[in-house]
Amino acid sequence: MRIVIALGGNALLRRSDPMTTEVQRRNIMVAAQAIAPLAVIDKDFAGGLLAEDVGADLFLMATDVDGVYVHWGTPEQERLSQVTPEDLAGYQFPAGSMGPKVEAAARFAAKTGRRAAIGSLEDIAGIVAGTAGTNVVARAAPGPGPGPEKR
Predict the structure, then answer these.
(1) Residue of 40, 103, 114, 130 with fewest CB within 10 Å of its CB?
(2) CA 105 – CA 80 distance, rounded (Å)
(3) Distance CA 74, CA 77 (A)
(4) How far out from the chain centre does Cα 65 lie?
């Protein structure tokens, strides 16, 4: 049996509960214990599956940074401009933040041959145009190779 359970804000903060982080964490623990034996699926992965299913031409994940960075938070940090799923496989990204987005983007591009992108909400128009964010494509574009772009 396949079950889809969507947990959102109202499920994690009941009307009678005070709006505190502690209460939300408690409610998350209740939900996690109840569904632990069941697909928990990451929202980025689920979004990629939906994009595949509807035949999307572009799978775009908006976030709070302008793209995917290697060496994040160091003087050597570089934004990846255009990469392939194979390029991304050579890097490691934090599981709690960029990791799931990168995995979902790489999977979508590899499976469909279409573009996935990750970038900031403010850059949506540029991301759609392919001029902003990190663009994950099935094959590298001709010309200079894909890779990091200094920021």
Answers:
(1) 40
(2) 13
(3) 5
(4) 11
CA distance 151 to 145: 17
What is the DSSP secondary-structure string of 92-148? Answer: ---TTTHHHHHHHHHHHHHHHSSEEEEEEGGGHHHHHHTSSSEEE-SSPPSSSPPEE
∠ Cα 48 12 45 (to 5°): 10
- Residue pLDDT, tens place only, 47-94: 899 999 999 999 999 988 999 999 988 999 999 999 999 999 999 998
Contact of 31 with 12, CB cutoff 8 Å = yes
Please check whether residue 61 is in contact with residue 44, taking contact to mean a CB–CB distance below 8 angstroms: yes
- Residue 2 φ/ψ, nearest 5 degrees: -105, 130
Burial class (CB in 10 A: 0-12, 13-18, 19+), 140: middle
Q: Residue 128 corresponds to which tokens in the numbers above?
A: 């759609």
CATH number of 43-150: 3.40.1160.10
Q: Where are the domains of the chain?
A: 1-40, 43-150
Residue 64 to residue 112: CA distance in whole angstroms: 26
